[in-house]
Amino acid sequence: MSNSWWEALQAIGLFLSPFAVAWLAYVLSIRQSRNDELKRVQLEYYSALAPRLNTLVCYVTFMGDWRDISPPEVIALKRQLDREFFVAAPLFSPRVRQRYDAFLDDCYRTFGEWGTDPKVRSSALPRREVWRGEWDSSWDAMFEFGDVPLTTEMIRKPRRSHDELIAALVTDLKVVRSRPNYTSDLVALERSSLGHAERDPVPPGAA
């Protein structure tokens, strides 16, 4: 190759390189901006969902302020969660949707007669005995198990599925934290007060 051609190629390379670098930087900046915006919106939805999910898991596992929550409020909570989650669902991975469905299925029995409310997968018996006000007898029908004593596994199952849902959300957010930091404060506090990670609270009448 003659010196003139070599010099020409060098000149073209010097001319194109800055534009190629600028174009690449522009593409990467757009991608990063979109990722940042997605992360911001995901965090907003997480911040809205997590406290409600925490309220639900505390109620069905007899933790925190569950005594202060009425059965109608727990039924209404499902509708609130569904409205918020299914708006946000396209922003998260299919795994998050699967974990959400599993957790809600552990907390509520749905697919009853058309037009009927879901039932809480729990027993009315221990809640009636410790309710701080006047218990409405119509609330008994809001529970799947009526006055059947709950087993320890009935309490463990929704807690596990809740933790798996939160872990899936945190994975999507790419937030690497220890387990007590992404599970609810009330759950972590309750566990630490029990003195053993695998010990479960046992409600009145539990088997």
Shape: elongated
Radius of gyration: 26 Å
Regions with pLDDT < 50 over 5+ consecutive residues? Answer: 23-28, 177-199
Structural class by secondary-structure content: mainly alpha
Give the strand order, joined by hyphens, for the main sheet: 1-2
User: Quaternary state, please?
Assistant: single chain
Report the sheet with the most strands, covering strand number, pairing sense and barrel closure.
2 strands, antiparallel
Query: What are the secondary-structure elements, in order, as H or E?
Result: HHHEEHHHH
The counted number of beta strands is: 2
What does this structure look like?
With 207 residues, the chain is mainly alpha-helical. It has one domain. The protein has helices spanning 3-60, 71-88, 94-107, 125-130, 152-173, 179-182, 185-194, and strands at 108-109, 119-120. It has a two-stranded antiparallel ribbon. α1 (3-60) runs antiparallel to α2 and α1 runs antiparallel to α5 (152-173). The protein starts with a helix and ends in a 13-residue tail after the last helix. The model is unreliable at 23-28 and 177-199 (pLDDT under 50).
Fold topology:
Blueprint: H1 3-60, H2 71-88, H3 94-107, E1 108-109, E2 119-120, H4 125-130, H5 152-173, H6 179-182, H7 185-194
Antiparallel strand pairs: 1-2
List keywords for this structure.
two-stranded antiparallel sheet; 207 residues; 7 helices; elongated; 2% strand; mainly alpha
A few lines on this structure:
The protein has 207 residues and is mainly alpha-helical.
